[in-house]
Write a structure and sequence with these properties.
Blueprint: E1 3-5, H1 9-16, E2 21-22, E3 27-28, E4 32-37, H2 59-69, H3 80-89, E5 96-100, H4 103-111, E6 121-127, H5 128-133, H6 137-146, H7 153-159, H8 163-167, E7 175-178, H9 185-189, E8 192-197, H10 204-209, E9 215-220, H11 225-234, H12 239-242, H13 246-256
Parallel strand pairs: 1-9
Antiparallel strand pairs: 2-3, 4-6, 5-8, 6-9, 7-8
C-alpha cells in the first residue's frame, strides 16, 4: 500500500495537486478520483457489505423493491444503471462507492466528523485512467469510441446493461468508474463519481492493493484536522453547500458552533 503522510495544509495541497498537468492538452486537469475518510483505518467497503451476513443475496431484492416503490418518473429512463445510481444517492445499500473529482470535498469528508478528530484521516487518490486500462476489451473499446476517460449510464447500458452482464464479462474482478447523472444539486455540488466492482464480494481497497500503481493514500494526521476544517469553512466547503437544504444547513451550523475544547 502506498501511504504518504502529509505535514501541513500547504503540503497537503502540494501533494493532492502534483499530478494534474496534462501535456497533451496543455492544461492542469487531474484524472483522479478522491475519497476522504475520517479514520485512516477504515476499509473501502460498500454499504451493501455493511448489511452483514448474506448481503450478496440481497442486492437484487433491494434494487427490485426500490424500483417497485419509487416514483415512475424518478429516473430519466428505465435503465438498471439509472436505478442503481439513484438508489445509491438516496441511501439504499448497493455495490457502489462514492468518490469525488475534488480534493477539497475529499478534505471535507476527512474532517466533517468531529468525533473522529482524535485519529488520523486518509484521502484515497485513484488514477481511473490506469484502472480502465486494465478493463476487458469490450469496455475499453466503449471508452475509445466515446473518446472518454469515464463511463456514463448510457455507455454502460450499451455494453453491460445489467449487473449480471457486468459480472459475466470477466472471470477476474474488475473495477470501473462511473460519472452519475446529475439527479439533484447534491450530485453536482459534490462533484461526484462512483466506483463499481464487477464482483459483489470484492472490495475496492483489496483490488487496489493488487494494483499499487493505480492509487496513493494520503494520511492526514489528527493534529492537522482542525486547521483543515477551519480553512475549508472559510473557503465555503461545508455541508451547507454539499448537502443543499435544511438538513445540510443544520449540520453545518451544529458543527460550526461546537466548541473545540482543550
Amino acid at each position: 500500500m502506498t501511504d504518504i503522510v502529509v505535514e501541513s495544509w500547504l503540503d497537503l495541497h502540494d501533494k493532492l495537486f502534483q499530478r494534474v498537468w496534462q501535456p497533451d492538452i496543455n492544461r492542469y486537469r487531474a484524472q483522479l478520483a478522491f475519497r476522504g475518510l475520517s479514520d485512516a483505518g477504515y476499509e473501502l467497503t460498500t454499504s451493501l457489505v455493511r448489511l452483514g451476513s448474506g448481503y450478496e443475496r440481497m442486492e437484487k431484492h433491494l434494487l427490485r423493491n426500490f424500483r417497485k416503490y419509487a416514483h415512475r418518473d424518478a429516473v430519466p429512463s428505465d435503465s438498471n444503471w439509472n436505478w442503481l445510481t439513484l438508489a445509491q444517492h438516496h441511501g439504499l445499500p448497493t455495490r457502489l462507492v462514492d468518490w469525488t473529482f475534488s480534493p477539497y470535498i475529499a478534505m471535507h469528508f476527512v474532517t466533517a466528523n468531529l468525533d473522529q478528530f482524535q485519529c488520523d484521516g486518509v484521502i484515497w487518490a485513484v488514477d481511473y485512467t490506469r484502472v480502465h486500462q486494465l478493463l476487458p476489451e469490450t469496455l475499453r473499446r466503449e471508452l475509445v469510441l466515446e473518446g472518454a476517460d469515464l463511463f456514463t449510464v448510457e455507455m454502460l447500458d450499451r455494453v453491460v446493461p445489467t449487473i449480471d452482464a457486468l459480472e459475466g464479462i470477466s472471470h477476474e474482478p474488475i473495477l470501473l468508474f462511473l460519472e452519475p447523472p446529475s439527479v439533484d444539486d447534491r450530485v453536482v455540488n459534490q462533484y461526484a463519481l462512483l466506483s463499481v466492482m464487477s464482483c459483489v464480494e470484492s472490495r475496492v481497497d483489496e483490488w487496489l492493493d493488487a494494483h499499487p500503481d493505480c492509487y496513493t493514500r494520503y494520511i492526514v494526521p489528527a493534529g492537522l484536522k482542525w486547521e483543515i476544517r477551519d480553512k475549508l469553512d472559510q473557503a465555503n466547503v461545508t455541508e451547507r453547500v454539499l448537502f443543499p437544504g435544511l438538513d445540510g444547513l443544520s449540520t453545518w451550523l451544529k458543527r460550526n458552533y461546537t466548541s473545540r475544547g482543550e
